[in-house]
Amino acid sequence: MHKFSCYSCGLEDHTARFCPSKAPQMGKLDPTAQGNVITTTEPKKYDASTDLTAKINVPVEVPANVIELESVQVKLGPQTMTGIIDSGAQISVIREDFTSGIKYEGEGYIEIPSAFGERDTTPLRIFEMKIDDGVHGPVPVTCAVSKNLVSDLLLSTTAFEALKENIQMHKFESKLDCYDTVKEELEVASIELIATDSVRDGSTQDGERTRTSFIESQMSDPTLSDVWEMARTEGNAYAIRDGVLTHTEYICGEKVKQAVLPKCKRDEVLRVAHEIPLAGHLGERKAKQRIKYSFLWPEIKKDVKEFCQSCRQCQVRRAITYRDRIPIRHIVRPENPFEI
């Protein structure tokens, strides 16, 4: 029987696959098998003396081209606060802590968005403020009252300009100011109105009878029924003073008290404010401004406009807006030579 022999060494009893000559030696390891050898080392102890400690001084620089905030001392009632002039604010904002016990006008709410998108619904009030330098009078400023305001007051550019203009008006006290001129004209017009009423009645009435008659005219006028209801409610511009229905409004920065005029007296006031030689046949806007220095009534703008449009002298002397109203048409050209 033939026996198997190894092709590598030629010996019997084994094949080339299991030849001892191909077995690895114990002292040498296969390079591909060295990654499987696990070696263990002892952990190193922490030595604090080997730490490197360094001190770094970073210079602090002030950023260039930074505009400082402009502020002004504003007085509200008995207290003084610091107002920051904010050119990006559309309305002035005051902190709620400064408004306790301070008289105000107006009832409303406004939603103010911040620069970071936050929105806050705050009351809208009108306060009388002034710059605390002792040379001016108070100016009505519309403010939003906020609890979340960090500073005392944010002043809009419009409000700050109004405060500065009031300083100049109070300092110089010019008698040639337009406000004083219009006020004097209105006083003369009011005297003319009283004199006209006395002549028409045929007798001179004393002040008490005239006031009583005026109050009765106000109470019996159906166009003033809603105004009476608002006057009985506090917190608005209408009020009842000694039985007379009045309205308070700020004109040119000054607080003006107006008598609410009944319908039976409106035509005479319109005539005095527009047609007398002192009035000068002013337009709708200026005539309304002149009347509002003493009187007010619902739909005053509509009545003044209709009265000015019905004035014959104003319509006759009215400027023509368009001088040529002929429609556009084609030009006829001559067909034969020398034909015109």
TrEMBL record:
Coiled coil: none annotated. Residues 6-21 form the CCHC-type domain. One of its GO terms (biological process) is proteolysis. The keyword Zinc-finger applies. Its EC number is 2.7.7.49. It is an enzyme of class 2 (transferase). InterPro entries: Aspartic_peptidase_AS (IPR001969), Integrase_H2C2 (IPR041588), Peptidase_aspartic_dom_sf (IPR021109), Retrovirus_Pol_polyprotein (IPR050951), Znf_CCHC (IPR001878). Signal peptide: none annotated. GO terms for molecular function: aspartic-type endopeptidase activity; nucleic acid binding; RNA-directed DNA polymerase activity; zinc ion binding. The keyword Zinc-finger applies. Keywords: Metal-binding, Zinc, Zinc-finger. This is RNA-directed DNA polymerase.
